[in-house]
Amino acid sequence: MTTEDLVRQQRSQFIKARALENGFDFCGISKADFLEAEAPRLENWLNKNHHGAMGYMANHFDKRLDPRKLVDGAKSVISVLLNYYPEEKLPEGPDDLKLSKYAYGTDYHYVLKEKLGALLQAIQEEIGEVSGRIFVDSAPVMDKVWAAKSGLGWVGKHSNLLNRDMGSFFFIGEIICDLDLAYDGAVQDYCGTCTRCLDACPTDAITEPFVVDGSKCISYYTIELKEAIPQEAQGKFDNWIFGCDICQDVCPWNRFSKPHTTKEFTLPESLAGFTNNDWQEITEEVFRELFRRSPIKRTKFDGLKRNIEFVRSSK
């Protein structure tokens, strides 16, 4: 082993240890390079209009595939996972209106950016001048692909990252930097012959293993789509009014999910006691106050009311 190799290993070990100290559950590192295998997949996905009204997905095609176009001199992608699986869950009975578990607490963008900022600062203090940028689902970065390349799991048939130890209820973030580090290798796919996620999706959004038509996903309808929800989706929402967890809930790997330890993601009391009647009678004032720092504010008050009415009209 050369001196340079030893330095890379020591720096990588420091980064991973500090990431865990900062509250992340997993950290892996991959080389910042062109995603050659992803280029035709992404192009085909866009050509089939699987992004629907999410026009931003077609923007910056070259940057999505090459992190060196996002950060000058980039050499490494540091990927982190932060568990959000809740200990206390909202009721999900046949008559209950449902929220995706990721939306229970504070908007993950705030939480991950703060933790990643502290990690980048620690790297700079330990190593010296390091140029890097933080990414949390807010720029053209293929986060699941980078997490998989960093050995943190594999991309399952439902297109979510799966980790053998804790399933798929994770937020993903990255630091792309100009630091030369020791790189991790990808792990194998452990989905096997299982098709539970494909079989369970009520809108047939998983068109084939590993391919999701985003324009048919309940999460897309309830969050991204700003127009009226298509009538062909009537009766298929299973009471989801913001996001959807069906493909994750049925995944056998999520039997290993463990409750998170991030206080910001805890279900607030004000939301825990919400009834169907509360949802139906929610006012814009209550919406603004209750979801001030929540991912749910993204759908806006009118969007949430639309979702609730769409589900109610399916009864």
UniProtKB/TrEMBL annotation:
Cob(II)alamin binds at residues 64, 137, 161, 172, 219, 244-245. Pathway: tRNA modification; tRNA-queuosine biosynthesis. Its cofactor is cob(II)alamin; [4Fe-4S] cluster. The keyword Nucleus does not apply. It catalyses: epoxyqueuosine(34) in tRNA + AH2 = queuosine(34) in tRNA + A + H2O. One of its GO terms (cellular component) is cytoplasm. Keywords: 4Fe-4S, Cobalamin, Cobalt, Cytoplasm, Iron, Iron-sulfur, Metal-binding, Oxidoreductase, Queuosine biosynthesis, tRNA processing. Signal peptide: none annotated. It comes from the Bacteria. GO terms for molecular function: 4 iron, 4 sulfur cluster binding; cobalamin binding; epoxyqueuosine reductase activity; metal ion binding. [4Fe-4S] cluster 2 binds at residues 201, 217, 244, 247. Residues 179-211 form the 4Fe-4S ferredoxin-type domain. Monomer. PANTHER family: EPOXYQUEUOSINE REDUCTASE (PTHR30002). Catalyzes the conversion of epoxyqueuosine (oQ) to queuosine (Q), which is a hypermodified base found in the wobble positions of tRNA(Asp), tRNA(Asn), tRNA(His) and tRNA(Tyr). Belongs to the QueG family. This is Epoxyqueuosine reductase.
